[in-house]
Design goal:
The protein is of the alpha+beta class. The chain contains 12 helices and 10 strands. A hairpin with a 2-residue loop joins strand 7 and strand 8. The longest helix is centred in the first third of the chain and has 37 residues. It binds 3,4-dihydroxyphenylalanine. 3,4-dihydroxyphenylalanine (DAH) binds next to strand 9 and strand 10.
Amino acid sequence: MTDKIDALLREVEEFEADSPEEVEAFRLKMLSKKGAIPALFDDFKTVESERRKEMGMRLNRLKQAATQKVHELKTKLEARASQADKPKMPDLTMPAARDPIGSRHPISLVRNRINRIFERIGFVISEGPEIEDDWHNFSALNFPQEHPARDMQDTFFVSRNPDLALRTHTSSVQVRVMEGQQPPIRTISPGRVFRNEAISARAHCIFHQVEGLYIDEGVSFADMKQTLLYFAREMFGEQTQIRLRPSFFPFTEPSAEMDVSCNICGGPGCTICKYSGWIEVMGCGMVDPNVLENCGIDSRKYTGYAFGMGIERIAMNIYQIKDLRLFFENDMRFLQQFESVL
Ligand code: DAH
């Protein structure tokens, strides 16, 4: 009898059920009048008196265990059923799910920063068309007829006669602004430009520039230097130094190339500045009197400066991006790194 009790006890302990029907079947098998446990109580009557106490305790323990098991399983399954019926209430104590916010493209981030820096000192933003005629892209800017930049090799032509091309620089917007307005002029023109170049880590056929133009009475090269120094320090940090190297552009005279001290190593040289301590940032110069005249501005009364920089070049420097092609591939893994930056 002891063995029987132990076997049933084990069965009770191990029993699990997934439905109320299974629990009921178990209850009938164990506890109903004709079930296994009442049957043992019948046998109990024949147990000799010295073993009765112990056997009684064992039997009661078995009965209790079975009753409790049935009760537990019933409540568990009922709770589960009522959970499934109930419409799900939101758990207001849960941490809120984060809405994935988009990210701005690094080119937009840098362009916006450049815009804000110049807006603070009175420059307004102007834009021009991406398909330009020869006049605005070249002739008005003093490019001689045979200048190599006009070559098919560099320029994407849209049509011949009239000559229409994808603009090769944002300097074309200078011309449009000067044609439409008399000095004082302070404007910057961000935009896309196009050149027929082989695509590599350092060059692309589409890129972005920001053009700057300042025309008024008595504007000097020193004014330009000071404005560009202010820009460089706002953009690359307070300690930044600039240097101007003589250069040539058809639309400025004199012309210069501006470098900034390397914002990574601060001067002694590193791989970013190719151990020179300097990073080339833009072309600039005093607007050639021919250009002023071409655009209907009196070059005896007014002078001015202009500058032009590539946004990719600056973005590559600021974010330490080694391959220009990343800007155009729309790889989410690249773009998501700029997430939540305003
Ligand atoms: N347009 C020039 C380029 O695309 C950049 C430039 C140089 C613009 C000097 C200017 C300037 O306004 O003064 O390379």
